[in-house]
Design goal:
Elements: H1 2-17, H2 28-41, H3 43-75, H4 77-92, H5 99-106, H6 110-134, H7 138-146, H8 151-185, H9 194-203, H10 207-235
Helix pairs in contact: 2-10, 3-4, 3-6, 3-8, 3-9, 4-6, 5-6, 6-8, 8-10, 9-10
């Protein structure tokens, strides 16, 4: 916390001394006061709930789709031939570049916002899980064949433990992607959400409200990533790495 605390102290000192124009960047105490006012009126909770609903729906759909596609491509030659190429092409295309096309297909309602988040999440999950599947050490596969493992046993004892580390990497990258895309789509013809709140504040030069929104996004990202890291440490407690 030393780095953030230092930045906060510098921000407060610059605001108190008048070096920072409050019209360009509100003081920390002004942001805190605005946060308290928005909470007391229920405005912040309403926007936060909307954003969480969008992000969660898109994230779950994307994780499911990306995981399913990665498994099909990773354990089947036909699946690899059909799926891997298009997914690599999509990786090279920025997700926000699909926004004009998806708006034409789906309109500007909630479905569009959820779908664009799901697309971004699915690609990151696919890339990591697929890499984990095709990167399983061949010696383990040969050992499973010598032991006479059935297909289900091979998947449970070799494939699942081998792909779990990459799965958690994909999960963390997918979470980051979901928040990044959420920020973008909530500023496109939205009527609620943290991004919408920030867009409206920008029009009226309310930097305190914009900073509240940024803080909310930061908290979302930090807490979700921390939850995944804690889960990863518990699930992969058998693994020994430099970090452990």
């Amino acid at each position: 916390m030393l780095g953030p605390a230092l930045l906060l102290a510098l921000w407060a000192a610059a605001s108190a001394s008048g070096l920072l124009d409050p019209r360009k960047l509100s003081a920390p105490w002004a942001v805190a006061r605005t946060t308290a006012d928005m909470i007391s009126t229920g405005v912040l909770q309403e926007h936060v709930l909307t954003s969480l609903t969008r992000a969660t729906a898109g994230f779950l759909i994307g994780i499911t789709a990306g995981l399913a596609l990665a498994v099909i491509a990773g354990i089947s030659r036909i699946g690899e031939a059909l799926i891997d190429g298009p997914m690599k092409i999509k990786l090279a295309i920025p997700t926000i570049g699909l926004i004009p096309l998806l708006i034409l297909w789906l309109g500007i309602g909630e479905l569009f916002k959820i779908v664009i988040i799901a697309v971004a999440v699915a690609v990151y999950m696919y890339i990591q899980v697929y890499a984990g599947l095709v990167g399983i050490d061949k010696r383990y596969v040969e050992l499973a064949e010598v032991q006479g493992y059935r297909r289900s046993e091979f998947l449970r004892h070799v494939v699942l433990p081998g792909v779990l580390p990459q799965f958690f990497v994909g999960l963390r990258l997918s979470l980051t992607a979901s928040w990044l895309v959420l920020i973008t789509v909530e500023q496109i013809n939205a009527l609620s959400g943290v991004g919408y709140m920030m867009e409206q504040a920008q029009q009226y030069a309310q930097t305190d409200v914009i900073l509240v929104g940024l803080a909310v996004y930061g908290i979302f990202g930090f807490l979700s990533d921390a939850l995944v890291r804690v889960t990863e440490r518990r699930v992969l407690s058998w693994r020994r790495t430099l970090a452990s």
